[in-house]
Give the backbone structure.
Amino acid sequence: MRARLSDIAQQAEVSEATVSRVLNDRPGVAPDTRQAVLTALDVLGYERPARLRKRNAGLVGLVVPELDNPIFPAFAQVIESTLAQSGFTPVLCTQTAGGVTEDEYTEMLLDRQVSGIVFVSGLHADAAANHDRYRALLARPLPIVLVNGYVPDIGAPFVSCDDREAAELAVAHLVALGHRRIGLITGPDRFVPVRRKVAGWRSAMTRLAGVAEADLGPLAELSLFGVEGGEAAAGRLLDRGVTGVVCGSDLMALGAIRAARQRGLRVPDDVSVVGYDDSPLMAFTDPPLTTMRQPVVAMAVAAVRALVDEINGYGAPHSEYLFRPELVVRGSTAVVPSAARLPYARTA
């Protein structure tokens, strides 16, 4: 084996250590150097290790969070359909609490020799996570595209909805209805989309609602994603006298509506609620939910096109594609009520 390493290294004009890294499919080797070693293997008549043989061009991994939130099945459906139209077969990997992790799914996909992976709201959205896992994939090299989350120093295409603008548009809608005491409910601060929503809300509240920066703290509640988290956070905001609530997801908005009703308040007569996503069935809730729509179809198609370009060697731009959200006005928002109709409201 020593002689073979020496022969391959001489043919490729690299070190034996580099040859070893390539043969063991380890990161840290430039794509051109990796290709030179593989070419040397072919020229010298050595068979490539199984892990280095041509990937199955028909398979693409799709890693999404749990499907309890209807926005994720919506993304998965469009991405799968668009991949099929491009001649690829998606391998759907769904994460659940306490189940298979993103890293474990990634290893499974690599074992299946996929041509690329699309990550939707994965660990790339978590600022506290170690993002070297994505750099290692790119070093293999393996094409990846990351949806809803951004890491500036990862050389891959990113596709996101403009969360900052979404929060600003939601506040502007409520201000136009006369609301000034507008609360924000969203998820933990370590997530990039959450930070962007908070920044947009704070900017709009100072510019449009005339609230001093120092007074914004009590109007924001960072909670767990989901109905229960929205309900708990909304209860605290309602006790502080908000008349409108901007939520980080539709499920959180449904929790806010539940919290209002538990206090004897009516939506939208006493308090207005705005969601985020426009996930399926939100037009049929009671009341129908006013929400910020993510352009799921446009985002999913862009993600697939970028991945296919990467797979085909065309090199999609390694930057973030930002998509504009759309305000969808339904029945959960209305003109601000008088203070007499808000028995739980107080300014302190």
